[in-house]
Specification:
Elements: H1 3-10, H2 15-31, H3 35-52, H4 55-66, E1 82-86, E2 90-91, E3 102-103, H5 108-118, E4 124-128, H6 142-151, E5 159-162, H7 168-181, E6 186-190, H8 196-205, E7 209-212, H9 234-258
Parallel strand pairs: 1-4, 1-6, 4-5, 6-7
Antiparallel strand pairs: 2-3
Helix pairs in contact: 2-3, 4-9, 7-8
Amino acid sequence: MSVLLTKILAQLVYPLTQSLVLSIVAGLLFWRRRHRLGGLCLAVSLSWLWLCATPAFSDFLRAPLERTYLPVPIADLPSADAIVILGGGMQPASPPYRLTFDLGSAADRIWYGAQLYKAGKANRILATGGGLPWFGSGQPEAPAIVQFLADLGVPESVVLLETTSMNTHQNALYSKPLLHEEGLDSVLLVTSALHMPRALATFRAQGIQAQPAPTDFEVVPVAEQTILRWLPDAEALADTTRGLREYFGLLVYRMLEWS
């Protein structure tokens, strides 16, 4: 399955896409004078979109994924031959529109990888991440990760680059030969906690001895549930979308594994 096709199929599990499709169906039903069924579709569309946009539901959905691998103090993590940092936390420079890299919400991955290196958990780092042409210039992310790591005090000489992957499967597939060539057998896999279940399964499926080193934990217990937790919020909708994407990715992975 091509990367582009996978991305397109993933759109079908996004709440906004689902709501828009149901609204179009509702409009067609109203046009055909099937008002009751059209009203039901419209009500389901708006209710689902509202629910997915609430912080309470978003946290409920993402929590099981994030808690699959709980945070561990750096001192308690095992040592490994290399630290693998998955891309997805930043955008590279794109002159003249963007003169330096742009850190995203998942840039914790790079910071955490640097901390693991400084703690002596591994002597090498593999930065993996290609360019996504539908998100800008298509420049690979991995070189920008190296630059950020250098700003954090990690020598460029210890960092390997994988610059062609465009999804998690390719992260693992293209990392394997690079690690093998350098004689690096065991790795600490660094990615967002939400993404870790799928990423770890994918790397281990390639025969890579990967241990989870999750970061970028987002869901924390809320001391007091208020009405605001059930009101729609754009950020919560985006978080729910990312959670559903991870569940979809795990489902696709299992289907390919069973086939």
